[in-house]
Amino acid sequence: MTLSTHLLARRRFLPIFATQMLGAFNDNLYKNAMVLFVVYQVYSSTAEEAKFSAIASGLFTIPYVLLSALSGQLADMRDKAAIVRWVKTAEIGIMAIGAVGLLLAWQNTLVTTLAIPLMLLALTGLGAHSTFFGPIKYAILPQHLKRDEVLAATGLVEAGTYIAILAGTILAGFISVEVTAVIVMVTAVVGYFAGRQVPAAPAQAVGEKIDFNILRSSITVVRATMHDKRVFYAILAISFFWTIGAILFIEFPPLAKNVLTADKAVASLFLVVFSIGVAIGSMSINALLKNQVSARHAPISVVVMGLFVVAFHLVCKAWVPHDGLYSVTEFIQLRLAIPLLLCLLGIAIAGGMFVVPLYAFLTTVVDKSQTARTVAANNIVNSAAMAGGALVAMGLTHFGISIVDQLLLAAAMCIVSAWLGWILYRAELDLVPAE
Question: Membrane-crossing residues (predicted)?
Answer without folding.
Answer: 50-70, 82-104, 110-129, 150-168, 174-194, 231-250, 265-288, 300-320, 332-359, 380-401, 407-425
